[in-house]
Amino acid sequence: MQLDARMTTKTIDWSYYTGQTPGYGACRAVPGEYACLLPDRSVETSFSGFTFHAPLPAGENINYIRIPHAAGDGRIAAGEQATDNVLEWDVDHWATRPGRMWGPNALVYGFNDVLVVAPDRTQYLLTSGYYYGYGALVPANTNRANVARGIYEFTDFGDVAIGQSSNDGGAFGRAVVSFMLPSGGGYEPLRVLPIPTPCDVHFVLTDRAGDQFGIAAVDLKGRHTYFFWPTLAELRALAFA
Fold first, then answer.
1. CA–CA separation, 188 and 181 (whole Å)
2. Cβ count near 240 (within 10 Å)
3. DSSP state letters, 50-70
4. Which of 55, 68, 201, 226 is at 20 to 30 A from 165, Cα to Cα?
């Protein structure tokens, strides 16, 4: 399957790497703006048309990348693997921030692009998706799984949710889009983002600004990270699962 030519896309290949840390990625709802871990090498970023490679902290990989929603100012937040400390790339160096990385949904850039960290492991609060439309942070367990809808680890914007399909029973996960029915009484069939199959997609992060989206998805099987910048209309035009 080829990537959809109608939307802006970016693919990063990290198949050179044979270790366990995936190429975590995140992007803004601004076409071409993203950050992606190149395991054992650097963090590649692209903001305002400028591509930069931030060195790894102490030469070690990082976990669970996040970038601000509104400001493409080069900041990157992530977890330090050895300590679970929260790190932030600050102009030209990695700075340690308060808090600990309790897992993949432990931090997010919240209101006014302030970095927010879940206070403890029991709360494990912050979803990968900051629910901009309702002006509130969303507890991670709210978006962990909607079995009836067939979507998991998702960002829900009310009219549309974006996440991954189930990989239970040996079926590999895909990046999926779920629209509410116009009546509000249910959901349309799942649509799929055009990632080549077979794939095993996880860590789907979505940013939204009006009808413009930015979606990052990590294919653990193919060892690629995919970035998509579709409009709402382009999401509706995707093929059904």
1. 6
2. 10
3. EEEEEEPGGG--EEEEE--SS
4. 68
